[in-house]
Every structure is written in C-alpha cells, then in structure tokens.
Amino acid sequence: MDNPNDMAGTKVMVIDDSNTIRRSAEIFLLQAGCEVILAEDGFDALAKIADHQPQVIFVDIMMPRLDGYQTCALIKKNVRLRETPVIMLSSKDGLFDRARGRLVGSNEYLTKPFTKDSLLEAVRRHRPRAA
Question: Does residue 109 contact residue 101 with C-beta atoms inside 8 Å?
Fold first, then answer.
C-alpha cells in the first residue's frame, strides 16, 4: 500500500451540483491530506480555477448552466490549464458518455456513487509526481 500521506497537499477541485457528492468527495480527499476546492457548477469552477490552480479536477457531467463536457472543454482550451487532468463524474456508465468525455479531453471517467478508494486512486493516478 502507498504511503497514506503521499497525497498531502495535492490540490483537488470537485465540481458537482449535488451537495452530497461534493461533501463526500471533500471528506475522502481531506482525510487523504488533499487541499479541496469545491464548485457547484462550471461557471463557479472556472471562476475559482485561476485563483486556486488545482492539480486534479473532478467534474460532474450533468449540471445546470454549463455541463461537465462544456466545462472540461473550456479547461482544456486554456493554455495554462490544458495539462490539468480532468476526471468526469457520472451516474450513467455509458459508452457514449465515456467517448464524449474523451472527445472534450477528459483523462478518466468515474461512475457515481464512487467509493473512497476509487476517488483516491484516481487522484493518485493523475496527480503530479513529486520530483
């Protein structure tokens, strides 16, 4: 097993319009020592990303105003954010959703409800490696 503190200080953003999902993700990530930035939708996230520079971003697909695909596409179009891993969150485990996520540049796809382990594993896979 990896060192439980290996994620300490990793900045993770969770974008989801569900308060329950944001809270559970926040608890799991804080327990792992991550810094957590929460956003309720794509607009909220885009406003916070520049200030907080997250290292890994989780984004829900189904959100009002700006959905996860649009949010991911906007993140990936930004030169400074292009390399930031984006992991799509969805309650649907569909092939179409996964393919569409890849098209807009997402790095991974996690099905909700996620477990603590699956969430932390995704962060481990995508966070920048310490030099």
Answer: yes
